[in-house]
Amino acid sequence: MAMLDLARITAGNKPERGSGRASPGTDFRTLAGTIPDDEWDRRLARFADASLDQSAIYSQSRWGSNRDSHFTLIDHDRPAAMARLVTFAAPIIKRGLAFVKFGLVWRSLDATPDIAIYRRMIAALCAEYCERRGLLLTIQPRPSPVTQEDEESALHDQDFVQRRPMKSPERFFVDLRISAEEQRKSLSQK
Questions:
Q1: What is the mean pLDDT of residues 74-80?
Q2: Which among 86, 124, 171, 188 is placed 20 to 30 Å from 27, CA to CA?
C-alpha cells in the first residue's frame, strides 16, 4: 500500500467570513478551533479512523498550542468529520503551511462511511486554510486498506497532487477489538 503526501495550493475568492457553512443549502456547518481539548478527544473516539496524530493530547504536546489547530464539519449538531492540523505561518507575509497528519477522520462508528463527507470536509478545509488563511494545505491520509483508494481519489479530484512517496510506507493494522488468539490467527504465515 503506497502512502501519499498530498499538497494543494488554492487561490481565488475568499468565502464570506462568519458564515460557518461548508456549502450553501446544506445542514453542514464548520467549527475552527472552538472545541476544548478534552471534548475533542471524546468526539474523536466516536470515529473508526481515529489516530493518535489526530488527538488533542498528542498534538498539543508535540506541536504546542501556538501551532496546533483543529477543524470540525458538523452535520445536524454532530461531528461528521474532524481534522487536527499543525500550522506554520510567516507573520509578515501571511503565508505558511497547514499539515494534516494521518487524518482527517470521517468514518463515524455509528454510521455507514460516506465518501461525500470526506469530500465535503476537504473542500471546507481548503476554504478555511488555503483561501481564508492563505496557507498551503498538506494532507497525509491515514493508511487504510479499506478507504485509501477512495480518499486518494477524492484528494486528486480536488486538485491535490502527490509531492513524494513516503520513505517507509509499511504500516501494520491491529484490530484491538479481537482476542490475542484471533490476532495470532489473522497474521500472515509466510
A1: 90
A2: 86
